[in-house]
Amino acid sequence: MSQSRSVCFSSSQSSSSARERMWTSTPGKRTWFQQTKTKKTTKSSAFSSRSMGEEGTKKNLANEQSHVSKTTSLSGPLGPIEIERGDPSGQPFGVSLIVLDDEDDDEKAEQKKKESTRSLHFSLYAPNAEKVQLVLYFDRDESKNDALTEPTIQIDMTRKEEEDDSEDDSEDDKKGIFTVQITKGVPLRGARYGYRVFGHNSKENKQRFDDSVVLLDPYATMVSSGRKYFGEEHKARKERDRPNPPDMLGTYDFESKPFDWENVDHPRINEEDSVVYEMTVRAFTREDESMNENIRGSFLAIAEKVKYFKDLGVNAIELLPVFEFDEMEFKRFPDDPDERYRARAHMVNTWGYSTMSFFAPMSRYASNGGNGIDAAREFKHMVKTLHQAGIEVILDVVYNHTGESTDDRPNFCSFRGIDNANYYMMDENNDYMNYTGCGNTVNANNPMTKDFILASLRHWVQEYKVDGFRFDLASCLTRDERGRPMESPPLIREIAKDPILSKVKLIAEPWDAAGLYQVGDFPNWDQWAEWNGKYRDTCRRFIKGTDDQKKDFADSLLGSSRLYRRNNRKPFHSINFITAHDGFTLNDAVSYQSKHNHDNGENGNDGANDNESWNCGQEGETGDANINNLRARQMKNFLMALFVSQGTPMLLMGDEYGHTRFGNNNTYGHDDRRNNFQWMEMEKYKETRFRFCSNMIKFRKANPLLGRKEWLDDRKCIWHEDNWDNEESKFIAFTLVDDISGNNEDLYIAFNAHEYMVQASLPKIEDGMSWHRIVDTNLTSPDDFDFKGSQRIGSEGIYNISEWGAVILQKKR
After folding, report:
1. Would the CA dihedral through 288, 293, 299, 301 be positive or negative?
2. Is 797 helix (H, G, I), strand (E, B) or coil?
3. How far apart are CA 160 and CA 333, in angstroms?
4. Which of 35, 188, 325, 354 qualifies as a FRET site for 456, CA 20 to 30 Å off?
5. 791 neighbors 771 (Cβ within 8 angstroms)
6. Which residues are designated catalytic?
């Protein structure tokens, strides 16, 4: 059993003498360094590791400052290490590069002293800490850095004093900032770094300081993990032998050339034109045998799949979490006496909803056992490649909780030990408030935390050019520090008003795990779109044949106007989906009546119980041809509904070929075929299921009547219905009037969820025109979808729509 670390405090001996001793507080070991102090006058320009990839080493004049600071010298593996302690003004949080120009240097000396004129600046905001030490791990050989278990150096950082009397109001923002600047002797690439944070813990202050843990910098833009491959065991099996339990520290790269975007920019796809594909980086290519094994499951592998996305027809991919997370969190307690923890020790967190670092891409999504530096560059390559193909990248982000858990077996890594009371919601008993179902809840509207989240989001837009965000359990972000929902939550408002963030797509999952359900009511400022959970439930109910769903289904088909037609909101603010990563896949929604989650180790208590599914007559896989044909038809019915609905459609990875998770509706911990895209299955169904799905997407994109920007009125949508109040009626038909193309090519769309065929009377049309069949889900491929509409419907004006069937007809000359 892993024991949580106890709180202990150590102190560094210091004096004003010319020579000083400094020692580490690593439990069980002290390392002594001899120090010498000198003085130096410099000018500096700061470059954040967040901007280095964009700006290289250009001077940032806005951050330029002059100051006099004391320099400490000590020995290290690369030679003398020189440390400056000075004013933190103008320096960003995290690690940044500062170019120092000695005022007395001439041009000849400048090249000679190039190494000493580039320094590293470290800055941490910890307003309630008493002391902070910078801890660095590095060797002459960069490849050995990740394996180091003992710090190379530890340095006391300088704090902006609270009693500093300054007439500048902005000085208040600097109080509680700890800084140190290293001018020589530390590599400009690849070192691991973290912080020991010292402070006092009490029930009243709700802190969790523990200086025995080396903490990950919250603003670290790259993470160095002790593990190179996804799912790899820790080399140090005992957590106390690692800097922190997940062995995650910051790293940086100020030596490599800036990434070349070659002027490739955001595609800027109109929201009404978006077709979103929700997917997982690792699971998408992990079992693709046509791909080099060294890149499977990586960011690079996604870039290799551009042709597939184009063939499918989607123009935006929504990636499940790609911020650094601890996929091994469930394996921490294989022998725990509590069965709840022991029972999940066989699983790996493959979905990634346990963020540890909000600025760094997942290091183990780098190819070929790469590191955080490689992951950052390969992520940019992925985005650039997708943008060149006109495909946007949307990130699923988890700002509602972190992977640090609670006091019960904490995964101590960062925020908890830096300022627990500011970063997390705590109750009056000093316990973590849980609105997420994951133990802790981020205190998102706390000013310190809000600014952190805003900085993180801007970083991903500016540094990585992402095109939008889907906010997991976004209703948590609308709560105040006591957990009360706010009408105008500061974080949500500032995101909507931000000059950078307001220009990208903002999507809320408008509920949380504590019962706050805001579908249609999420604070939005006409900027935020929403995952429309009511659309999903209504479509599933109607198409499987539930009574009294016709009115709601009709509203869903036209963009859910009852929910979103207010103020300046548009149909595209409804993100329409039938399935998503959590819940049944499309195949399972027509194959299973109830969830089958026994492999999750929670006795079937996890995952949703209200799946609104129908197994079509038998639970699970079957050899019954009639049942399988009905299931295939129902899947096509769902896809047709999704892509003819006004609003923004989102397709789940694998639904295009009928992926199954064998009835498990919560596969977050299964790093196997339940989550992995099955490329052989896709090939098997390429000319049937994939063809139908792809054609539906392309038909939607090609037809201006689908995906309208504005709301439809009775002139643009004509309902062929006089049976609205009959609760048992399960047939619905309407015409979308072509007022755009000038060709008068109306669309007739009908769904029949009855157990019997319906003989539908088609709308009368003018001379010279006739109805042509585009889709009939009752037919088999290739007749089920005819993009050209080559099959003309007879002049009798009748079309027989099969039981559990759907059709699209188009008026043509």
Report:
1. negative
2. coil
3. 41
4. 188
5. no
6. 472, 509
